[in-house]
Design a protein that fits this description.
Blueprint (H helix, E strand, L loop, with lengths): L7 H10 L7 E2 H7 L6 H10 L11 E2 L12 H11 L12 H4 L5 H7 L3
This protein binds a DNA duplex (13 and 13 nucleotides) through helix 2, helix 3, strand 2 and helix 4.
Length: about 120
DNA sequence: AACATGACGCGTC
DNA sequence: GGACGCGCCATGT
């Protein structure tokens, strides 16, 4: 908002770290909040490249259709389902109800946490 | 330099 | 819902 103090990827990681437990967000929404509208694909790349020491809750990010983006029957898919369910999120065939679990960041969060 | 590839999104049919 | 097409752009070949 005042300057690009951090790299685009670092901003993405930051935003993802703000998603509360038990809730999910989407690639596109994360991109918007990170100041990268239209860059959903970049978010997926950022998650893949995220250093493990960040302990990022990558599994809280799904696609805009409310579905897990990994193909079913892949290790990643299985793991994501387990992690989501461990936070009491209902997952049916890779689908999550965004109207129930979708993260709705409030103004306070945006103003005090996203002042790049 | 040129082309292909994504943990994507959106409009259209 | 599903299947395309197109936009997006950093990376890899």
């Amino acid at each position: 908002m005042y300057q690009q103090a951090t790299s685009p990827m670092a901003r993405i990681w930051h935003v993802v770290s703000l998603i509360p437990s038990g809730q999910v967000s989407t690639y596109g929404k994360i991109a918007d909040l990170a100041g990268l509208p239209g860059r959903a694909r970049y978010v997926s790349r950022a998650l893949k490249l995220a250093p493990t020491h960040l302990n990022l809750s990558w599994y809280r990010v799904i696609n805009s259709q409310g579905k897990i983006s990994f193909p079913e029957n892949t290790a990643n898919f299985i793991e994501q389902v387990q992690l989501l369910r461990s936070e009491n999120i209902k997952v049916n065939r890779g689908r999550i109800d965004l109207s129930i679990y979708g993260w709705q960041p409030d103004l306070t969060t945006l103003m005090f946490e996203l002042t790049y």
